[in-house]
Amino acid sequence: MTLQNLKYVVAVAEHGSFSAAAKALYISQSTLSSAIKELEAELGTQLFLRSNRGIQPTPDGEDFLRYAREIVEQSRALERRYRHRRYAPTRFAVSTQRLPFAVRAFQRFMEQLSWNSYDIAIRECPTYTIISDVAAGKSDVGVVALHDQYIPALEKTFEINHVTFTELERLPTYAFLRRSHPLAKRDKVSMAELLQYPFVTYDQEADRSEYTEEVVFHQIAEKTVHVSDRCSKVALVRFTDAFSIGPDLTNSNADAFHSGMGEIVAMPVEEISDSLHVGYLLQKNVAVSAAMAVFLDYLRDDIIVLKKTL
């Protein structure tokens, strides 16, 4: 008994005659009739009653058909599932903090794609979501900037989630101001001077400071503006005397496509020597694919360009 035999039996029952079933199966009626007779001989039972009025399943045939239909339908479901998969688009996804060089690297990656079909994604999201995305396989790569003092705590989080962090560069601490800001013409600024102005910061997820992508300073800002996205942060720094600290407002080739970024300048901060460790997350023990390698090369290049402009 073969799957093809089962398909023949189901077709005869559905069409009510050997001739109609043979036509639907694109085989000769004699081939179909012989196959059914051989199956009946193998089973030792008659599956169909043949008469001038057509074909009718016997009681044994009805019982056999219940199982045959289920098996045939399951085989069709498998064919649909895996035939579709053969032609499914190639997938690649990146989860990143609000980092312009990651977006630029993804843009360059997209421009060089030669795949016939693809389904790719870049997600700007909080650090803990990036870790979760990579751990679950939702994203192939996670791009993060991690604060000096929180690396030990985060290494434990990475271990628990079976992800690895590879550092590419360390970025110094800068304050970002608009070019017309009263402090913008200085060679460097102090925190006391900066804190006379509104401080724009991202909302911290889960109230856990080790997840921040900004350098943390310990003076209390009396004027604080919380945002949840980079576009709002850019607009507030660009059009007001507010300032920001972190790698996300850098004015470089990596961020050339963000309107108005040329109007924001980076200023060294006297009291802060901390740096941000910029790198990527991968699932532990997962080999780097060709797509990952290309994206990571672009990411590495754009971070180098960024560092030279600071």
From TrEMBL:
GO terms for cellular component: protein-DNA complex. GO terms for molecular function: DNA binding; DNA-binding transcription factor activity. It comes from the Bacteria. InterPro entries: LysR_HTH_N, LysR_subst-bd, WH-like_DNA-bd_sf, WH_DNA-bd_sf. Residues 1-58 form the HTH lysR-type domain. SUPFAM superfamilies: Periplasmic binding protein-like II, Winged helix' DNA-binding domain. Keywords: DNA-binding, Transcription, Transcription regulation. Belongs to the LysR transcriptional regulatory family. This is HTH lysR-type domain-containing protein. The lineage of its organism: Bacteria, Bacillati, Bacillota, Clostridia, Eubacteriales.
